[in-house]
Amino acid sequence: MKGKIGVLLIGILIVSKFWIGIYTHDEFGGRHLFMKHRPIWKTFFYSPIGMSDVQLSALTIEKQKEHILFKEFITDRGLSK
Q1: For position 79, what pLDDT does the model report?
Q2: Which of 1, 25, 63, 66 is the most exposed place for a label (fewest CB within 10 A)?
Q3: Rounded distance, CA 10 to CA 44, Å?
Q4: CA-CA distance, 50 to 11, in Å (whole number)?
Q5: Which tens digit of pLDDT belongs to each residue from 21-65?
Q6: Strand 20-24 relative to strand 31-35, pairing
Q7: Within the chain, where are the H helices?
Q8: CA–CA gap between residue 56 and residue 5 (Å, rounded)
């Protein structure tokens, strides 16, 4: 019985890792929980640009990818308003 509960708990954790995310608001800085629109392993989202006037091309490749994911999962879904 304990083995089944353990497997169920691990399954729930893995599924929640794919479908539940946390983002840091790009203007006010608070952390918020949200449901992702597609499964992705990434859990924490933030905008390296924030509310500044920095262009995407001025960022490193890693930060560009981070901003693109933030835009897809947060901004385009109307969560960071």
Answers
A1: 84
A2: 1
A3: 20
A4: 35
A5: 999 998 888 899 999 999 999 999 999 988 888 888 888 999 999
A6: antiparallel
A7: 2-19, 61-70
A8: 46
Pairing of strands 20-24, 44-45: parallel
Q: Please report, for the chain, how many H helices and E strands are present, in that order.
A: 2, 3
State the pLDDT confidence band at 71, using cuts at 50, 70 and 90: very high
Query: In terms of Cα–Cα distance, which of 65, 10, 74 is closest to 36?
Result: 74
pLDDT score of 80: 74
H/E element, 34: strand 31-35
Sheet of 31-35, strands arranged across? 31-35, 20-24, 44-45
CA distances from residue 22 to 5, 44, 80 in whole angstroms, order as listed: 26, 5, 12
**Which two tokens mark 70?**
């933030």
